[in-house]
């Protein structure tokens, strides 16, 4: 963990080619804490993912099921703006109930 002073909260920091995301701001000590993250500056759309993953920092939003079907939100970890739509897939459970009559010849 890296400790920095006098920076606004929310976003990334790169130091010597290494990326960090802001993770905590201590108002009392006027201190911003950051933790290492793999920042993807050229983030692309993630399609048909079972997890709501931030294309910028890779953080997974475990509360994504609370979101509406589509819209805009932000990453709770790095603060990046995100646009999304939920894709619903349908699966079936099939139980045998009654077989059609069988005629034996
Ligand atoms: Zn993120």
Explain the overall architecture:
The protein is mostly beta strands. The protein has one domain (2-85). The protein has strands at residues 2-5, 12-15, 18-26, 31-36, 70-74, 81-85. It has a four-stranded antiparallel β-sheet, with no helix packed on it. It has a two-stranded antiparallel sheet with strand order 5-6. Strand 2 and strand 3 form a beta hairpin. The protein starts with a strand and ends in a 20-residue tail after the last strand. The mean pLDDT is 89. Zinc ion binds next to loops.
Q: Which word captures the global form?
A: elongated
Tell me the radius of gyration: 23 Å
N- to C-terminal distance: 80 Å
Give the low-pLDDT segments. none
Main sheet: which strands, in order across?
Answer: 1-4-3-2
Count every beta strand, where a strand is a DSSP E run of 2 or more residues.
Answer: 6
Which structural class is indicated by helix and strand composition? Answer: mainly beta
Give the proportion of residues in helices.
under 10%
**Mind summarizing the main beta sheet?**
4 strands, antiparallel
- Overall average pLDDT: 89
What's the helix count? 0
Strand residue content: 25-35%
How many domain modules? 1
SSE pattern, N- to C-terminal: EEEEEE
Bound molecules: zinc ion
